[in-house]
Amino acid sequence: MKNKSYLIIDLKSFYASCECVMRGLDPMTTDLVVADAARGRGTICLAVSPSLKAKGVRNRCRVFEIPSRFRYIMATPRMQLYLNYAAEIYSIYLDYFCKNDIFVYSVDEAFIDITGYTQLYHKTPHEMARFLLCEIEQRLGLPASCGIGTNLYLAKIALDITAKHAPDRIGRLDEETFRRTLWQHTPLTDFWRIGHGIERRLQRMGLFTMGDVAHAPYKAIRKAFGIDGYLLYDHAWGREPTTIAEIHAYRPETQSVSEGQVLLRDYSYTEARVVLVEMADQLALRLTSRHVVASSVTMCIVYSSRPDFCIPPASGTVRIDTTNASSKITTALLELYTRIVLTGHPIRRILLCANHVEPEAEQELSLFTPPEAEMKERARQQATLYLHQRFGKNSLLRATDLLEAATRRQRNEQIGGHKAYGDKETVEPRKNLPAIRRPAGAAGAPARERDRARGTV
Fold it and tell me: What was the pLDDT predicted at 69?
């Protein structure tokens, strides 16, 4: 593993930087937040520009938490724009690396195994990182930082901790430098996969740094954290054996498909029932679009929290005939909703999950459901998906989607619960993609050289 080299590239304040570039502003010096002003001052800022962060504004804060003395631009989220930029960034990686050596970790982060490319391009890992950061900034105008490590974990830690203090925004770690420079680093929450809960549990054990964890009795770590103790102990020593190839090859034993949303206000029992019907139908359409069926569905209803009392969520699972039919899924969930949900308490969050998902080809027809009815409903759902794809998701709706409590029409215009195209009066036409400043020959020559070296052409 010491001969391996990994990069992880992170776009700095990705959403905010995209908005700055689209406005012709410098992402590193412009005070800008990405938040939906229509949701009020309590809405979360999806991104805060680096210059505001330097002034003490924390990322993912509420709008009202930004000091009033700061003057800044508030940009309405445009999720489709950010996805377009993410796709262009991925295409830059494909210009120089095979897709099997790339693992997209999030919309703005990606791991790259550069072990076989340093000799191909005659560059050191640091030179290759600097080259990629320059390519992204020259073509798209977006600032980025990079971590280099001898395994995936060290690359991530180099990005999160070391790169922040490097003038060129590039950090590098191997096991030796990790132990020498970061064993005494605090707080522990700076390290990947350690949240405040794990930090408190470690502190109760008298462990305050990664060096403390590395030298703690292994059995005590294993007993306190279970199977995660293996991972925590290895990470304390800077070890991580998993490779990108193993990540790509991983296949879970079971699969599920889920739907969830946080309601923008407190919903009554009757209003939430309307949203549940919408979500159940949407879950069935997602199963149909993937040509899979499910044998059970899970529902979780989270009540609105209040200072004087807190009610635990209502959750349950119900078995259904192995199907993706909307009628069966909706009926099962409504029966479960009636049975377990309290009627007198406001609801703020609804989660649905279809369990034990398997391909349609493996489904056995039920003896109690006429095959014609099953086939008719499946054909109707496929026709609905076709119309949604061709004319938009709001081209065909149910009557319940027009009720005041319904949320489907609004959510059909969102991505990840946020506006896909921003405010109609200020957003560019949908056909507009990011302005790409691609150097002549940049896409063709390196890719051909890469593929020729790997024997794929």
Answer: 92
